[in-house]
Structures are given as C-alpha cells and as structure tokens.
Design a protein that fits this description.
Structural class: mainly beta
Shape: elongated
Largest sheet: 34 strands, parallel
Radius of gyration: 43 Å
Length: 684
C-alpha cells in the first residue's frame, strides 16, 4: 500500500519532487502510518508520492486513481491526516484478539484464551463473565484433552467418565493430553485396548481413591505405547496396580519371544505413589509389564506403602515384569535413572531376556532386584551404577546366564534392629555372571555378602569391598564348580569365605606372598625372604613347647605340608616331633603325624599334614613346630628380629607347653610369649 499526500492548491514547497524508488516502500509507509499516525513520505520531504520509473511509463506519472484507498493500493488521509480504518491492512491472520467477557462471538471465531491457548468458538454465543472451555475447542493443542469430553480437572470433581472417554478416543491412535490439570478418578480403573499408537502426556496428575489405575492392552505390535511426564497417585494403602501394560501374545508354542520389533514403547518422567505424599498410602504395584519387549523405562519414581509398622511391605512391587505362561520369554527392556521406595520387591523380573538396569536406586525394599529366567540359555541381565538398601536380599538371580552386577552399593538393615540374616547377592543355578566393583555394607551385620549356590558355574566375584559387619563375604555351596573369587577387600579378620565341596572353584587374591619368587621350589608361602637368613643358628627350641611363627597365606592356597630348616646342632635325647598350622587367633587348623625321623644339621625337614587345608581368604596364620627331647633341634632363621618390638600381631612366640605328641595339641593355643628369634619355614 502506498500513500498519496495532497497539499491543497498551494505550490510545492520545493521545485524538487522526491521520487520513491520502490512501490513496496510506499505500501510500507501506509502500514507505518496506520500504526503510528506518522507519514513516511512526509519524513522524506516529498509533497507527492509518485510511482517509480520502473513501475510506470514515465517518471512523472502518478499512481493510478484505482489504487487510491484500496486495501492493497494507496491509502489517503482524511481531514485529520489519519488513514481511514477501512483502509487498514487485515492483520487477523497474524494477530488474535484476546477473549473478552460479555462479548458476542460467531461460530468459528478464534481468540486467545486466558489459558494461553488458541481456541475456536464451537457455535455462535455470547460469553459470560468468566471464561468457559466448554464453549471452545482447541485445535492447536496436541492431542485429545479430557476437558474436550467434559472433565473439570480441579482435583475434586470425579472426572472418571470423561477421562475414560478421552482415553478410548486416543487409544484409536493419538495423544491423550492431560494439559497440566489434576483429575480425580475415584475408584474406577481406566482401561483401553489399543487400535493404534498411544501417547499419554501433558504433565497432568491422576488421583484414585482406591482400586487400580491404568491398564493398556497393546493388541498389536505396531501399537506403540508412550507415557511421559504424568503422575499417578492413590489414596489406598497398598492396593491396586498404578500402570499395567499388556503386550502382544506372539505364540502359544512355548518358543521364546525373539522378534525385536514387538511391543515397542516407553515410560518416562512418571511419578507413582500415594496422594498424601507420605508413607501412609501407595499402590500395591507401581508398574506391571506383561509380555512386553523393546521397552524403556526412564526417570520413574515409585513410592510404595511400607505398612503400619516399618517394613511390613504392604506394597509388593515397584516394577514387575512377567510373561504369559504360554510364552517362554520376553526380551529387551532397559530401565535407567529410576527410584523405588518401600516395596517388597524393587524390581521383579520373571521370564525375560536382555534386561539392562542402570543408575537405579531401590531403598527400603525387601528384595532389591529379583531375576528369574525360565530359559537358562541366554537371559542376559545387567545392573550397573546403582544402589540397593534391602532386608532380605539385594539381588536374587536364578538361571541367569551372562549377567553383570557392577559398580554398585549394596547395603542392608534389619526391621527388628538386630543382626540381619540376609544376603547381598544370591545366585542360584547361574552361569557366567560377574560381580565386580561393588561395595557391601551393613550397619547392623549381614550374614553373607555373595552366596553362590545350586549348579552355578563359571561365575566371578572380583574387586569388591566387604565391610567388617559382614560375616561371610562369599559363600560357595557344594554343587558349584569353576567359579572364581579374587581381589577382595575385607574389613574384618573374622570374615570367612566358605568353600564347601564345590569342584574346581578358585579363591585367589591379588596380594603377593612375602618374596615368594625366592622361595624354594614347590613352596606356596614362606615366613620370610630366605635371602635374609643368618648363617648362625638360632637358640634351641623348648622341649614340649609349640614354637609358632607367622606366615601369610593367600586365599585359595592349598596347604599340604610344612618345612623347617635345622641349624648346626642336632637334637639330643630326641623322642618325638610334629608340625601344626594355626589361624591368627591360634585356633588349630591342621597337624602332622608324629615324626621320629633323624634330622641332620643344616637340612630341611618336610612333614605332610594329616589332611590338606584350603585357605578361605587372605589371612595371617602360624606354622608351629614342637619337639620332645632332652635338647631339641636348633633352627635356622633370623635372630634378634623386629618381632621383639612387641607389636600385634606377634610374628613369633612360644605357645602351648607340656605337649607330648600331635594329639596333645590343644584346639586353641594360649597367648604367645614373644620370641626374639624368627625361624624360617615354608608351606607347600
């Protein structure tokens, strides 16, 4: 639109006529004038608006009269130097009027609602004092709103009928948008069978008084379920399922559900818990997935109902995953950055393969993560970078193959305040599963850190830390085989790794025995580096008194015999001798038979123990020698050793006295009397 300026009959103020070079600038001037009342052409000092030479045949040719006052032509000013309203450009396609009270609206008119939404009048009507969404539709909003079906969304009015209608409509293939409102549903479950992909979103809150929440049946592999940014709350005390999704039944032949293109979906940024926000209410189960595959759960928070007394666990599950009995196995579910509080099971998985859990925290649960695979062939499962605080079991894995538990904190407590009888990790009939980099803690005491039982084979426990309140860091049962335990950090000397009648289990340590590289051939441990032995003989040992010297034995060491080296003087009046093995608390572990063999000066004497002994964990032990003689044998070793400093533990000392033979060795020896001589011995 251009502007033509008339200055009456007066002569032009200047003989010079300004030419506007482009018609677009003239039309822009009309818009500027319309909005500000200013005249763009006057600002140029022109008294007439002419067409640009390129627009007309002559430079002095005026704009055609037909364009004067035309909406897209030249605007003329009235007597007040204003553009008439009829000549204003139509901006309605760009700018919307705000909704006004007591205003008549025609059907189809669009306004900007007080909610900030663009709304369209459903029919002709006159607005009231306050805005009512029932008079308007929201074509620009994503998806279907429960308010389109009559929901109020005030958290008080029962919106169950409207919500069910909206869910049913969206389940045909669409989006259910909760629009940030709070909807009270009463005790009515919301149920839908999908005939297309479904998304539930919008940051809204659904509140039930009792009963179950939402149940979705995917019905077909193409019907993807996406639930994001919503909250599901209940006022019940540990009853109902907040969200249940039932996947497609792939077959009834019992074959594994292998196709990787089935039942896709996700649950993201969803809060599930009690409406009161305390431990006095909560769902019976948070999320339940049935025959679901190719699914992700991320940033989900489930708060259960702990019960009237602490840890009664009225709420049974935070997240439960099960398969239809006709199907052997479902596959591929990833759970990350999620939290579960106060449920009997934090995560309970039955009959799945390929479950990956990362950065999850399960607190105040009976059992943190239970995984029971129907098919022991390939039920891959991992739990990494997480934290579990439990009462019964942190992990309960059965028939797992190729599993990983890594870099996680596992700790326990007792509901009664006493010592826990729980287990940090329980493995039953498990194959090729690795537990690495985990920390096991218990403020009140834990019976077992890791228990490997059943026909478990080829499992590894490594680089884990067990605090002193854990009685048994690792327990291997009789049917286990070829499992390896190594590089553990133990917090207490009373801790014992129990290696029962398992076959070919390896319990090793990264600790290097004292200068074992210089030990005699066949030695598995020695009391000192033999390069430090003095050439002189030590003082003779006391007749009938057990001389005990310390030796470090790594976990898994199989002790078969002990060897001492004689000095320059043999025994006289010799009657009997034997060797013995003790733990650091002087408890008798093994003895040799009585030995009356002659012992030449400066030679080693090896005597086998009556039974082999497998060292359960890295530990300090004592190897002892006792002779009954008028003058017992003198030994080789280190005289005037630092043992005389009297530091604990004592490295060498005299124990039980008045002994006559191996059978007379007591089950537990007395406190040691420090000896300044440290005899050399080695274990083989």
């Amino acid at each position: 639109m251009a502007i033509e300026i008339h200055s009456g009959d007066q002569a032009p103020a200047s003989p010079r006529v300004s030419i506007v070079k482009r018609r677009e600038l003239l039309r822009l001037g009309s818009l500027v004038t319309a909005l500000t009342g200013a005249c763009a052409a006057a600002a140029m000092g022109a008294d007439r608006a002419q067409a640009a030479p390129g627009d007309k045949t002559g430079a002095a040719t005026y704009i055609p009269m037909a364009e004067k006052a035309a909406p897209s032509g030249v605007a003329t000013l009235d007597a007040s130097a204003k553009i008439q309203s009829a000549q204003f450009p139509d901006l309605s396609a760009t700018y919307l009027p705000k909704w006004k009270a007591n205003t008549a609206y025609l059907a189809g008119v669009q306004v900007l609602a007080p909610t900030g939404e663009t709304v369209t009048a459903k029919s002709g009507f006159t607005s009231g004092v306050s805005y009512s969404s029932t008079d308007w539709t929201t074509p620009t909003r994503l998806g279907i709103s429960p308010k389109d079906h009559g929901a109020v969304g005030d958290g008080v009015t029962n919106d169950s009928v409207a919500m069910q209608a909206a869910l049913t409509a969206a389940a045909k293939g669409g989006v259910l948008n909760l629009s940030g409102a709070i909807y009270y549903i009463g005790n009515t479950p919301l149920v839908a069978t999908l005939s297309g992909p479904l998304t539930i979103t919008g940051g809204g809150v659904l509140v039930w008084s009792s009963g179950s929440g939402i149940q979705l049946n995917q019905n077909d592999a193409k019907h993807t379920v996406t639930i994001e940014g919503v909250s599901l709350y209940t006022r019940a005390a540990g009853a109902g399922v907040a969200l249940e999704i039932i996947g497609t039944i792939q077959n009834t032949t019992g074959a594994n559900l292998r196709p990787r293109t089935r039942s896709r979906g996700s649950i993201t940024r969803v809060n599930i818990g009690g409406d009161a926000g305390t431990a006095n209410d909560g769902w019976g189960k948070g999320i339940r997935l049935v025959d679901i595959m190719n699914f992700t759960i991320n940033q989900v928070h489930v708060d259960g109902y702990a019960g009237p007394k602490p840890y009664d666990y009225v709420s049974t599950h935070g997240i439960e995953m099960v398969t239809n009995p006709a199907n052997a196995q479902a596959v591929d579910v990833a759970i990350s950055q999620s939290y579960v509080f106060f449920t009997q099971y934090g995560l309970d998985v039955q009959g799945y393969e390929g479950v990956m859990v990362d950065q999850c925290i399960f607190i105040g649960v009976g059992t943190g993560f239970r995984f029971d695979a129907v098919d022991a062939g390939t039920p891959l499962v991992t739990f990494t970078n997480g934290q579990i605080a439990f009462i019964n079991r942190g992990f309960d894995f059965t028939r797992t193959n190729q599993g990983v538990i890594s870099d996680s904190l596992i700790y326990t407590y007792s509901s009664s305040g006493g010592t826990s009888t729980g287990t940090g990790v329980w493995l039953q009939d498990v194959t090729s599963t690795r537990i690495t980099g985990c920390t096991f803690v218990s403020n009140i005491g834990l019976l077992t850190g890791v228990s490997i039982s059943g026909a478990s084979i080829l499992n590894v426990v490594e680089a884990c830390t067990f605090y002193a309140t854990i009685t048994n860091p690792v327990n291997l049962s009789a049917l286990t085989s070829k499992n390896k335990v190594h590089n553990l950090i133990l917090g207490g000397t009373s801790q014992v790794i129990i290696n029962a009648a398992g076959v070919a289990n390896q319990i090793q340590s990264e600790a290097t025995p004292v200068q074992l590289q210089y030990a005699p051939t066949g030695a598995v441990a020695q009391t000192m580096d033999r390069r430090n032995l003095s050439t002189a003989s030590l003082a003779a040992i006391r007749s009938g008194t057990m001389l005990m010297t310390a030796v470090w034995l790594p976990a898994g060491t199989v002790v078969k015999s002990a060897t001492f080296v004689s000095g320059g003087t043999p025994a006289s009046g010799f009657i009997n001798r034997w060797f013995a093995l003790f733990d650091v608390n002087r408890n008798l572990l093994r003895t040799t038979a009585d030995n009356a063999t002659g012992w030449l000066p400066g030679t080693p004497l090896t005597i086998p123990f009556t039974a082999t002994y497998t060292v359960p964990t890295d530990r300090l032990c004592y190897v002892g020698i006792c002779e009954v003689a008028t003058i017992p044998t003198v030994l080789r070793g280190l005289s005037s050793s630092p043992n005389t400093l009297g530091l604990e533990p004592i490295l060498c000392g005299n124990g039980s006295a008045g002994l006559t033979n191996a059978a007379s060795t007591p089950p537990r020896g007395p406190a040691l009397t420090v000896s300044s001589n440290l005899p050399y011995a080695y274990i083989s």
